[in-house]
Write a structure and sequence with these properties.
alpha+beta, Aminopeptidase, 46% helix, six-stranded mixed β-sheet, LytR_CpsA_psr, LytR/CpsA/Psr_CW_biosynth, transmembrane, transmembrane helix, Transcriptional regulator, 386 residues
């Protein structure tokens, strides 16, 4: 009796058996192989390529900026002019430079350092004399960001200092930390933040809100995500400005509102404002790095006129060169110091954050170690008066 499939001749039967055997061997081999799981490069090739190109472009821009600045500062008469022009643009004035230098701690080469970035509500040069009269000429530092800069780790950490953080002056008075600037200037603010955070501050930079508007406009606007509709009166013009929610490119005037507005938030008003300020700072950095490399020296010189700092051209060149060695754009962390509080009768009935030395110590321990402080609950250890 024939054992093959019915209707097949001998040749067809042999081919069928051979194919069946081949299929069986193939299945056996596949059973021994691990299952195929396509990764992100296979599933999303366009996204991966764009992300990689963006990282490479940012690294190249930073590297080229460092090289161009180094070359510009090291050769020829133009180099001397550029370096001098940049130093003059960055200077805060001889008197303030001296007091700030005295307040700053020395930094160690190739080691992480802390820098204080301060935004004041000064309206000097705005032409709005009525506004100056209304504020009594006072200048407060409503924006205070402590930066930990670690070029070796290619990392920058931003820590917002809540403006209502209590600070005890030498005469025993308790004030909000943002009032220290009006009392003793930049040098006093540096000492206050250093004492609150428990770390030495080695560099300082300052920008006024009127200059923030010019800086953002000079960049052609910056892209941020506005989470709620913000409506605020422009402190310089008196004009009411509204910024709609959503991801968008904002103008300099809108950037001021984005950095100032807080009453639109139902809870944690100043915490939301601080988060907006940090988002704006990162957006400005990104916009600068996204510029064509050949434009960067000019861009740096333009922007320097809006910022005052103790850093000199050589310091900036060294820092840019150090960061340019990284394999990608710098890692940036963002957080805030303890910000819960209430009306303080002992301080004259003003709203202050609760005393919270343990919260600050816990936060800065993570920051100082180069860790990621985002998401930490730093308010749990607040000392709430009975």
């Amino acid at each position: 009796m024939a054992t093959g499939s019915p209707g097949l001749n001998r040749a067809q039967e042999e081919r069928r058996l051979e194919e069946s055997s081949r299929a069986s061997r193939g299945t056996s081999r596949q059973a021994l192989m691990p299952a195929y799981r396509p990764n992100a490069r296979v599933l999303y090739p366009d996204y991966i390529k764009k992300r990689k190109r963006r990282r490479i472009a940012q690294r190249i821009s930073l590297c080229v900026l460092a090289i161009l600045l180094a070359v510009v500062c090291a050769t020829g008469g133009y180099a001397a002019w550029y370096s001098s022009a940049l130093d003059n643009a960055l200077s805060m004035g001889s008197e303030q430079d001296a007091s700030v230098d005295e307040a700053l701690a020395p930094s160690v080469a190739d080691q992480p350092f802390y820098a204080l970035v301060l935004g004041s509500d000064s309206r000097e040069g705005s032409g709005t004399s009525s506004k100056e009269a209304e504020s009594g000429g006072n200048q407060r530092s409503d924006v205070m960001i402590l930066l930990r800069v670690d070029a070796r780790a290619n990392q920058v950490t931003m820590v917002s200092i809540p403006r209502d953080t209590p600070y005890t002056l030498d005469d025993g008075r308790i004030v909000k930390v943002n009032e220290v600037y009006n009392i003793g200037g930049a040098a006093a603010s540096i000492k206050a933040v250093s004492r609150i955070a428990g770390v030495p501050v080695s560099h300082y930079a300052e920008i006024h809100f009127s200059e923030l508007q010019s800086l953002v406009d000079k960049l052609g606007g910056v892209t941020v995500n506005v989470d709620v509709e913000l409506s605020y009166k422009d402190a310089l013009t008196g004009e009411k400005v509204t910024v709609s929610p959503g991801v968008q490119t904002i103008t300099g005037q809108q950037a001021q509102i984005f950095a100032r507005a807080r009453h639109e938030y139902v809870t944690d008003q100043d915490a939301h404002r601080q988060n907006n300020v940090r988002s704006l700072a990162m957006a400005i950095v990104k916009k600068v790095l996204d510029r064509p490399a050949y434009e960067l020296p000019g861009t740096v010189l333009d922007l320097a006129s809006y910022v005052g700092t103790d850093m000199k051209t050589g310091d900036i060149v060294s820092l840019a060169l150090a960061f340019s060695k990284g394999s990608s754009a710098p890692v940036m962390y963002s957080c805030s110091g303890p910000d819960k509080g209430d009306i303080s009768e002992s301080a004259g009935g003003i709203w202050l954050c609760y005393e919270n030395p343990q919260g600050w110590a816990d936060l800065m321990a993570v920051v100082d170690s180069g860790g990621n402080p985002e998401g930490m609950d730093v308010n749990a250890t607040a000392i709430v008066p009975e």
